[in-house]
Structures are given as structure tokens and as C-alpha cells.
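Exercise 7b. C-alpha cells:
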């Protein structure tokens, strides 16, 4: 995910600066990129037409994300790249609750650097690293660096399940 496109160029450079990646770029799947203390997932697992996933596609993919996150027992912070990811993470954490919970009401609003505590997870909002956001200055290197620094703080202060 994000490999070989400009969104990925921006994201992987930021992950590298924050110490979450061993190199600042990824151009293909065997280029040596290794993430450290980070996992990249997607709310929608397919490439939808015009790269615009629908809520129905998000719902169809939710069980895959639930299974994947259950295997990743040490995850405590979920960085949501965009409002669509924020909404998907709210649904994901509700589904992971024991017993499964309803979506929080009122629904926590997405915003850059927004935080919401959902059971054992903290959701952290970040504008998506799309060219539309990075070329216009809606998301800058300083902004993503600050969010990734906060993600590290949250992750390091959260208790592990090991």
C-alpha cells in the first residue's frame, strides 16, 4: 500500500523521519522497506473505480480488518489517514470490543491531530497524504511529523498485551 506513488513518497519519508521505517521511500514490494512498530492497513482492500471507495465496500472489508487487528495484539494507536479511514477505524474498534459495541454517539469528529479513545485503542487523525493535500499545503511535512511523534508517544505510553 502506498508503494510507488506520490502519497507513498510523502508518507514513507515521514515514517522514516519518525523512526517507523528503515528507509525514506518504497518503489516496489521487494525494495527493502521495513516498518518498525507500525502496520499499514486499509479500510478497503480492493482498488475501487476512480479510487473512491464506497461505504458498502468499507463494510464488506471490515471483517478482514477485524481479523487482522486481532492478530496484532500490541497495536494501541491507530493512525487514520483521512476521514474515510477515521470512520472505518471507529467501526473497527466497535467490532473489536468485547462484546461488540455500538458506534459512539455523538460520533467523534475527524480532524488533523484529532484523538479518540476507543477501548484499548487511541484513534489519531491525520489528513491523507494525497497530492491534493500535500501540494496545497493542507498537509505539510511538519504536520505529519507532529502527528507521527504523537503516535509514538501514545504507543510507548500504552500498556502492552504481551
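Sequence design result:
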Amino acid at each position: 500500500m502506498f508503494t510507488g506513488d506520490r502519497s507513498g513518497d510523502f508518507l514513507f519519508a515521514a515514517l522514516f523521519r519518525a523512526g517507523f521505517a528503515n528507509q525514506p521511500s518504497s518503489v516496489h514490494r521487494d525494495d527493502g522497506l521495513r516498518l518498525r512498530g507500525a502496520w499499514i492497513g486499509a479500510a478497503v482492500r480492493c482498488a475501487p473505480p476512480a479510487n473512491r471507495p464506497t461505504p458498502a465496500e468499507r463494510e464488506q472489508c471490515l471483517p478482514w480488518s477485524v481479523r487482522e487487528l486481532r492478530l496484532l495484539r500490541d497495536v494501541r494507536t491507530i493512525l487514520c489517514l483521512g476521514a474515510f479511514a477515521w470512520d472505518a477505524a471507529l467501526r473497527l474498534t466497535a467490532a473489536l470490543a468485547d462484546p461488540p459495541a455500538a458506534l459512539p454517539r455523538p460520533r467523534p469528529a475527524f480532524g488533523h491531530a484529532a484523538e479518540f479513545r476507543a477501548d484499548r485503542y487511541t484513534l489519531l487523525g491525520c489528513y491523507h497524504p494525497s497530492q491534493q493535500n500535500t501540494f496545497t499545503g493542507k498537509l505539510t511535512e511538519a504536520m505529519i511529523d507532529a502527528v507521527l511523534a504523537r503516535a509514538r508517544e501514545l504507543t510507548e505510553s500504552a500498556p502492552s498485551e504481551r
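Instructor comment: Residues 90 and 120 are 12 Å apart (CA to CA). The chain has five helices and three strands.
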